[in-house]
Amino acid sequence: MKELFQKVTENASYVAGFILVIIGLFVVAVIAEKLVQKKKGVKEPLFYTRKTAVIGVFSGIAMLLMLFEFPLPFAPTFYELDFSEVPILIGSFAFGPAAGVMMEFLKILLKLFIKGTSTAFIGDLANFVVGCSFVLPAAIVYTYKKTKKTAIAACVTGTLFLTVFGTAFNAIYLLPAFAAFYGMPLDNLIEMGMAVNPMVKEGNIISFVIACVAPLNLLKGLLVSTITMLVYKRVSPIIK
Fold first, then answer.
1. Which parts of the chain sit beneath pLDDT 50?
2. What pLDDT, on the 0 to 100 scale, is given for residue 119?
3. Bridge partner list, 71
4. How far apart are CA 42 and CA 141, in angstroms?
5. 171 vs 119: CA distance, rounded Å
């Protein structure tokens, strides 16, 4: 805990930016949720007792799942697959996009308190933003009309957003930020990709994210969507 507070103090400006991103995404989620409710002619409080309790429980489950990561043969070892978005997507389908963003935030917050940060919050911000890029659009689509066909469309939409945004985000922000944090040339990270994936070209960050990051995000979106579709209807009555 002491180490975490020390890192927060040392990186106060970065943490402040992190908080602004969280607030911004939450505002987008709330606006989207209210617009859908208005169009459907329904009114529902943003948070109530059962909803808050489920958000807390699912955030804890997501954090635990986040601790179990699996390496992939086509990407360097610093990219791993986890299933922490499964309970968050289920909770988002049940309670809307604002709940989804809240669960993503609580997942990261719990992880920081338990494990701290080894990347000066760079990886934690990335996990939150990329997770929201999947959960937020999927929840918005499903909230508009809660049918099986819409659930499939929501999962497809979320997976596409995750793949496109996650890939671009890595190229534009995450990889350069990691290179700067570890004090190494960006080409060193690209070389790590070349060592495991022949499609990665020397000095070419675009080939790196297309060959390593895009398949990872696409695979995660498909797996999380499939699991959610299989279990959501079974757990939905319990949640509500």
1. none
2. 73
3. 80
4. 16
5. 17
User: CB neighbours of 56 closer than 8 A, spacing ≥ 6?
Assistant: 106
CA of residue 137 relative to chain centroid, distance: 12
Tokens 């409710």: give the residue: 37
80 in Cβ contact with 196 (< 8 Å): no
98: nearest Cα among 44, 39, 19: 44
Predicted local confidence at residue 195, as pLDDT:
93
pLDDT digits (tens, 9 = 90+) for 48-73: 888 899 999 999 999 999 989 899 99
Residue 108: CB partners within 8 Å, gap ≥ 6? 124, 127, 128
Q: Which of 96, 90, 14 has the alpha carbon at shortest distance from 59?
A: 90
pLDDT > 90: percent of the chain: 56
Cα 99 to chain center, whole Å?
13
Distance CA 194, CA 206 (A): 12
- Give the closest residue to 79 by CA, choosing from 183, 178, 206, 182: 178
Which ranges of the chain would DSSP assign to H, the alpha helix? Answer: 2-10, 12-40, 49-66, 85-95, 97-115, 122-144, 148-169, 175-181, 186-196, 205-208, 214-239
* 60 alpha carbon, distance to own chain's centre: 15
Q: What is the pLDDT of residue 219?
A: 96
- Which residue type occupies 239? I
Q: Which helix (H) or strand (E) holds 45?
A: none
15/231 Cα distance (integer angstroms): 36
Helix (H) or strand (E) holding 172: none
